[in-house]
Amino acid sequence: MEKWIIMGVVGLLGLVIGSFLNVLILRLPQGQSILFPSSHCPGCKEPLKWYHNIPLLSWLFLKGKCSYCKEPISAQYPVIEALTALIFVSVFYKNGINLHSLAVALSFSLLLALSLIDLRYKAVPDSINLLAALIALYASPDIAGNLKNALLVAGAMSMLRFFVSYYVSKKEELRLKKQIAQAPWLQDYYPKYVMIEAMGEGDIIVGFTIGAILGLEATFVAIFLAALLALPASIINKTLHGDKELPFIPFLAAGAFLSYFFARDILEWIGVS
Ligand SMILES: [Zn+2]
């Protein structure tokens, strides 16, 4: 019985954090202060009353519309709040009521915010990313071990990025050279050196965070799951939008969250451990 009351409190904490994440997602990429001005309707700029600001419930009572101008309020708000509460309850349920659970839940929540920002802007603010990385180091009592795993994953991802970028750049350089060989006048218009960066820098910081929380084995599972989730999404994205670039952080974050709970089962299932 007592445990369920504590879980309820944890869930409420998740809702409050989720409500704050909504502010981060909305304001940080636009360079606005996250503290001032206080919450207002993005449509009519009318400041919100306290009872307009209750996570989840307000959106339901207002039926998803601003109480002043009746402008629709994005469903993203209650969805982020509910997902953050889910993250908090499931992490504390698995890992027990302690400060390490809080660190893991906060890191995953910040990864959720980063995912939303990446989906919308295809770039993420370092502030949230680095904060998640620092908090993740406290994911378990073995902080030195967490740091080692974090550095190994971030290092491996950096090297991978160098190799893939080199390959992609050389391929593009060859393509341009072939065109120039056929039409030498193009030379004046083409760059001498090609430098294409294959992976976002933000992905490497996310790798650090995931390594710290999961350890090496479960990180491999996380990256595998991320690729598995990204594959159909990238095919749909290509056919629907012809847009080749797909933000990867949402998939990394989802893969990491699933791996946190199911890596053991997945590894056992494929017979690795
Ligand atoms: Zn309004």
Question: How would you sum up this structure, described in words?
Answer:
- This protein has a domain at 142-273.
- Helices cover 68% and strands 0% of the residues.
- It has helices spanning 2-27, 57-61, 76-95, 99-121, 126-136, 143-182, 201-241, 249-269.
What is the mean pLDDT?
91
Helix content class: 55-70%
Amount of beta strand: under 5%
- Radius of gyration, CA atoms, in whole angstroms: 22 Å
| Ligands present | zinc ion
Largest sheet: none
C-alpha geometry? globular
The count of β-strands is 0
Question: Secondary-structure blueprint of this entry?
Answer:
Blueprint: H1 2-27, H2 57-61, H3 76-95, H4 99-121, H5 126-136, H6 143-182, H7 201-241, H8 249-269
Helix pairs in contact: 1-3, 1-4, 3-4, 4-5, 4-8, 5-7, 6-7, 7-8
The chain binds zinc ion.
Zinc ion binds at residues 41, 43-44, 46, 66, 68-69, 71.
